[in-house]
Amino acid sequence: MQGFQLFEHAATVPTRSYNTEEWQRGYRSLKEEHSYWIEEIEGEIPTELNGTLFRNGPGLLDINGERIQHPFDGDGMISAIAFHNGRAHYRNRFVKTEGYLAEQKTGKILYRGVFGTQKAGGWLANAFDTRIKNIANTQVLYWGGKLLALWEAAEPHRLDPKTLETIGLEYFDGELSKGAPFAAHPWIDPSSQFDQGNPCLVNFSIKAGLSFTISIYELDLDGKIVRHHEHPVPGFAFIHDFAITPNYCIFFQNPVAFNPLPFLAGLRSAGECIKFRPDQPTKVLIIPRDPALKAKPKILETPSGFVFHHANAFEQDGEIVLDSICYESLPSVEPGSDYRETDFDALAPGQLWRFRMNLESGTVDRQLLEPRCCEFPFIHPALAGRQHRYVYLAAAHAESGNAPHQAILKVDVETGERQTCSFAPDGYVSEPVFVPRGKASESGLYTEVQGAEDDGWLIAVVFDVKRDRSDVVIVDAKDLSVVAKLHLKHHIPYGLHGSFTPHYFE
């Protein structure tokens, strides 16, 4: 299908491609819940694109006008874009968590947020209140016939995949205990050696204490936990994401320190009590997936840095190769600071790095793959834990410096070739989700690459400041031409993660 370009020449975009005040408008609550067919479309939706894109993110950034201090503290809102025969339907619903319902009923903030939100009344109202509000705002995934909204510090919420109505907390037939966390970055192994070659879902949780414990869960196609093992690790853990290979789970233990006293005293949130330690190395924890081995984590070290997200890992010649988004440091979250006033020029950008961990020598080599400011990496789902060639990312429009994400970036890690699709100066881009063009397997998953690795589409939500609305954008993954722009009737607050299933839910 012939695509259309947003700009004929890069010169049509100003040197500084973004306007801070315009970018800030994406951080507004969307309080209405919608359900409608998308009728305003530029280009054409590919007729081969059938299934549902689910996206999650903080949709509520204030409670009755009382502002949430940090977007990561906002209540989760699920968007579903269902594609069928060249048409698309949009629906959004808030995850009706216990905390969400309570705060909507009272019209005020009742819980402290992890990243800065405090209850009204100063430190006296917040002291020794360590309750955690399950905000279910980070990822959403359809697995084992269940749609799950995930947040890394608590249990998943199960949703109706057609209506997005909240069914309740999910405990996987009692295998997950009440209050136990279930992280927001699961991986689907397309061919698990522990499941006769069938796919399985791999996830983890962190239990904090004087040291911490990593729990690893593996779920079969029916959504049942079939493997669960725990591994104590010394030190404090700030681990948001991980990676898998056929044999290992890999975690980066970022060098941070946590002082709980200001949090307990009601003076700071938990996130404001975390400090980056540039004098300490980043540790790499390598844990065998086979619980029968009962192996302790292998701990390697690499120079100090901070990692939120991993693109993918694979095994090669006795090494584990891992591509990750790395930051020079973790900026401190200061009490009373306004995230909307971010000074991008004062912060180092996230960049794509490759790490090679030699299991025999215990050494780690690293290489910068992409210097452009980028985040939210995505690969072909059939290559999870296997060698990949392409990584797709949300990125800055400019090749250097730090800035909001206004472009989709494709990096060929074999040749170093790069392609970009920029929506600057008026568009701000979410995570690009790669959808293969080929048919899914009988399990309803993409378990093998059919044809070229980049034969498919990238789907992203782009906030258009001129229209003050969001678009669902479909981009050809081969040449990054825009195939279609689906104009929504409203904006979607900047989100976090999403997933695509070939199952059609409308």
Automatic annotation (TrEMBL):
<dbReference type="InterPro" id="IPR004294">
    <property type="entry name" value="Carotenoid_Oase"/>
</dbReference>
<keyword id="KW-0223">Dioxygenase</keyword>
<dbReference type="GO" id="GO:0046872">
    <property type="term" value="F:metal ion binding"/>
</dbReference>
<dbReference type="GO" id="GO:0010436">
    <property type="term" value="F:carotenoid dioxygenase activity"/>
</dbReference>
<feature type="binding site">
    <location>
        <position position="185"/>
    </location>
    <ligand>
        <name>Fe cation</name>
    </ligand>
</feature>
<keyword id="KW-0560">Oxidoreductase</keyword>
<keyword id="KW-0408">Iron</keyword>
<feature type="binding site">
    <location>
        <position position="309"/>
    </location>
    <ligand>
        <name>Fe cation</name>
    </ligand>
</feature>
<feature type="binding site">
    <location>
        <position position="240"/>
    </location>
    <ligand>
        <name>Fe cation</name>
    </ligand>
</feature>
<dbReference type="Pfam" id="PF03055">
    <property type="entry name" value="RPE65"/>
</dbReference>
<protein>
    <submittedName>
        <fullName>9-cis-epoxycarotenoid dioxygenase</fullName>
    </submittedName>
</protein>
<keyword id="KW-0479">Metal-binding</keyword>
<dbReference type="GO" id="GO:0016121">
    <property type="term" value="P:carotene catabolic process"/>
</dbReference>
<feature type="binding site">
    <location>
        <position position="497"/>
    </location>
    <ligand>
        <name>Fe cation</name>
    </ligand>
</feature>
<comment type="similarity">
    <text>Belongs to the carotenoid oxygenase family.</text>
</comment>
